[in-house]
Amino acid sequence: MVRLVTRAARSGLRRYPGALSGALRDRAAPARPASNDLRALPDQPFAASWLGHAGVLFRQGGQTVLVDPVLSDRIGVRVGHRVLGPKRLTPAPVSPDGLPPIDLLLITHAHFDHLDRPTLAALASSRTSVVTARGTRRLIPRGFRRVIEVDWDQSTDLERLTLRALRPNHWGARFALDRARGFNSYLVQSSDRSVLAAGDTALTGAFRGVGPVDLALLGIGAYDPWEHKHATPEQAWTMFRGARGRYLMPIHHSTFELSDERIDEPIERLLRAAGEDSRRLVLPAPGSVWTPEQEMPPVR
Fold first, then answer.
1. Count of domains in the chain?
2. Are 172 and 135 contacting, i.e. CB atoms less than 8 angstroms apart?
């Protein structure tokens, strides 16, 4: 434990003074998105788009679902006109105006890189239902159709989708003293498809046996020195196999500098872990649309 705390302290001292200095020079401003337009994504029966970091837009069961969107340039605590925290390494691939109408918004937990209030405020709509973790309802901006808190092993039906909350190996605090907040993974099921939105997790057996899963969204970054709370790429591949997944879209990498591994290391390690099964990896450019092959690979 002492060694872990020491490594974590060194990691923070390496990164956060620079992030704080940059934040103090910047005023809070909207993200500078690229010109992608995803409003046609609902034309596909089953499709997905990675929005950078943990944000994923997907279409399933006639519903458009958005997970943990962060379209801001910088994440962290807002102080006056400034946001104190890490800045995006690349611009957001889309603006809120470039997204289709959202039927369901999923928030896995309250960390700033998953629950970004400025992004949510820009997306608020009387059409959109929000499902979020225990103790996080008050963090969701006003303007949504409804906000539903779910805890581990609870299920809820929304239109043509059934959601089940699973318990990842993580934690839910937004600040130092609110560790009672929940933290979820979600299994999203329709009549013909299943999506696992894992959010953040270290290695866990929580996904074993939930499959077959057509698309798994699993984090592969921020493991050095945080492997006790964020899976390595090899561990993500192990969990994907345990969930009997067909396709894996890796998330939580290459967007914010949150840890000590090289920015391109997670994808390199994941490709090695997948080996001859690398065709199961979904590695689109941020903001591009992925659709599965006509004949999906069998689960193993």
1. 1
2. yes
CATH for 185: 3.60.15.10
Q: Does residue 16 or residue 48 have the better pLDDT?
A: 48
Output the pLDDT for position 15.
Answer: 45
Query: Is 13 part of any domain?
Result: yes
Whether residue 189 lies inside any domain: the answer is yes
Alpha-carbon distance of 52 to 167, in angstroms, equals 23
Average pLDDT over residues 83-109: 96
| pLDDT tens digit sequence for 219-235 | 999 999 999 999 999 99
Please tell me what DSSP assigns to residue 137.
G
Within-domain flag for 291: no
Contacts of 117 (CB under 8 A, 6+ apart): 139, 141
Question: Per the structure block, which two tokens stand in for 51?
Answer: 């929005």
Segment 117-149, tens digit of pLDDT: 999 999 999 999 999 999 999 999 999 999 999
Buried b (16+ CB within 10 A) or exposed e, 150-159: bebeeeeebe
| pLDDT score, position 2 | 42
**Residue 295 counted as domain residue:** no
- How far is the CA of 4 from the CAs of 21, 110, 235, 266, in angstroms? 26, 23, 19, 21
- Measured CA to CA, the distance from residue 225 to residue 128 in angstroms comes to 37
Structure tokens at 65: 């679902």
Tokens 């974590």 correspond to what residue? 8
The predicted-structure confidence for 186-214, as pLDDT tens digits, reads as follows 999 999 999 999 999 999 999 999 999 99
CB atoms within 10 A of CB 261: 21
Residue range(s) defining the domain that contains residue 35 = 2-280
Residue with tokens 């963090």: 139
Residue 73: other Cβ atoms inside 10 A: 18
Whether residue 234 contacts residue 273, with contact meaning beta carbons closer than 8 Å, is answered with yes
